[in-house]
Write a structure and sequence with these properties.
- The chain is about 40% helix and about 20% strand.
- By secondary structure, the protein is of the alpha+beta class.
- It has a domain of about 180 residues.
- It has a 9-stranded mixed sheet with strand order 1-9-10-11-8-7-2-3-4, with helices on both faces. Strands 5-6 form a two-stranded antiparallel sheet.
- The two termini are about 20 Å apart.
């Protein structure tokens, strides 16, 4: 039975009418939240966060008031921006040979330099024993690479590739390494993640890459960051919630959830996102204060804890994440702010280099079909007849 559009339209009308009633109240609460942020002090924030031990939501670490805004520096005369992105094809049980593919694409765009910009993509196919993450001991301990595990492997492949690009960078001008999405690898901290996956993603790839990039920054002007478009984070808003809260930890746990509070005055931030308050607080081009992530996964990051700030690029409020050594270096922090803002202006609200890296990495429907066809064509005929599912064969035959 097809969708009954008349019934759906009635539901949509009910939703939009209710949303309109909530809109005015929400706008007023956003404005009040901004006023509290502007009135917050470093001492007050630090003291409040020092006494926090157990709350049912994630907040942002802060060492200054919540309402600061910073202007960008002048753009360097010459610089480069490097970026990587990835896509993948998961294991398909209907095909004769189990295999997966990760395609990492990237670019290095040079501005006002004599050398040309570079664009590339590099596919890697995983099959056989290569489809398993294995332990170092003689005990049989392994994880099959598919689904979310393949996605995590793709993410760290992107980071590893970007690190290699920057290591080969020969120009004396500044370079920004820019990724899409979060540097906080949330998937690794989820329930049921095997210890071998965590080891491969964090210990064997992410940490060594960050170590290498930090060392490179000592000999060249290098900034590293990731850009999150339309962020749904509430870390800073929750810090404001803590700043306003008048309840003890144990009482808060009964009155608060991840997204709202039943208690006043901290209930003014209910259902408000970080980007809502910074859209009011920041003028075009400005960035916020720098905040630290308090996610439990940060304990595995060692000296490379993730910090972040927000920037008004003229089209949207973007969240910029950087490793600790960038956050605590004023010059590199300012360079990151300036170059990302310039990238967003060139890309009409989204970093140009990230868009170009995506174009190199993306796998279209025809790419995926071609990969499947090549696998079937190069598979031994007898093996194919015994191991290819009827589902695949049915898709290859015209029925009407």
């Amino acid at each position: 039975m097809s969708l009954d559009l008349n019934k759906a339209i009635r539901k949509i009308k009910e939703i939009t009418q209710g949303h309109a009633k909530e809109f005015k109240d929400r706008v007023a609460r956003i404005q009040l939240s901004v006023e509290h942020m502007e009135g917050s002090t470093r001492e007050g924030i630090v003291e409040k966060l020092r006494s926090v031990s157990n709350r049912p939501f994630l907040w942002a670490g802060a060492t200054e008031g919540l309402g600061q805004a910073y202007e960008p520096d002048p753009i360097p005369q010459a610089f480069s921006v490097a970026s990587t992105d990835g896509s993948h094809i998961d294991v398909d049980r209907h095909l004769p040979i189990p295999c997966a593919l990760i395609n990492v694409g990237g670019c290095i765009i040079r501005y006002n330099l004599r050398t040309k910009s570079d664009f590339f993509s590099e596919p890697e196919v995983y099959h056989g024993e290569g489809l398993y993450l294995k332990g170092d001991t003689n005990v049989v301990d392994e994880v099959y690479i598919e689904g979310s595990t393949l996605g995590m492997l793709r993410t760290v492949n992107e980071i590893e590739t970007l690190t290699n690009i920057i290591a080969e960078y020969q120009d004396d001008s500044p370079i920004l390494g820019l990724m899409d999405g979060s540097l906080i690898l949330w998937q690794v901290s989820g329930p049921g993640v095997h210890h071998l996956v965590k080891k491969r993603v964090i210990d064997q790839t992410f940490i060594p890459a960050m170590d290498k990039l930090e060392n490179l920054s000592k000999t060249k002007t290098l900034a590293i960051a990731s850009y999150v478009s339309m962020p749904r984070s509430t870390d800073v808003v929750n810090t404001l919630r803590l700043y306003l809260c008048q309840s003890a930890d144990e009482k808060c746990s009964g009155l608060c959830s991840i997204r709202k509070s039943l208690s006043s005055p901290c209930n003014i931030v209910n259902n408000i996102l970080d980007r809502d308050v910074f859209a009011v607080l920041l003028k075009e081009g400005q960035r916020s204060s720098v905040f630290s992530s308090t996610s439990v996964i940060m304990k595995d990051y060692g000296k490379h804890s993730i910090f972040f700030f927000y920037v008004n690029n003229g089209w949207e409020i973007g969240r910029i994440e950087v490793p600790e050594w960038i956050a605590k270096n004023p010059d590199l922090l300012s360079l990151t702010h300036t170059l990302i803002l310039d990238q967003c202006r060139k890309g009409l609200g989204y970093p140009v280099a990230v868009s170009e890296a995506h174009e190199q990495a993306v796998l279209t429907a025809s790419d995926r079909r071609a990969f499947q066809d090549m696998l079937l064509a190069h598979t031994n005929e007898s093996l194919s007849s015994n191991n290819t599912s009827q589902k695949v064969r049915s898709k290859l035959l015209p029925w009407l």
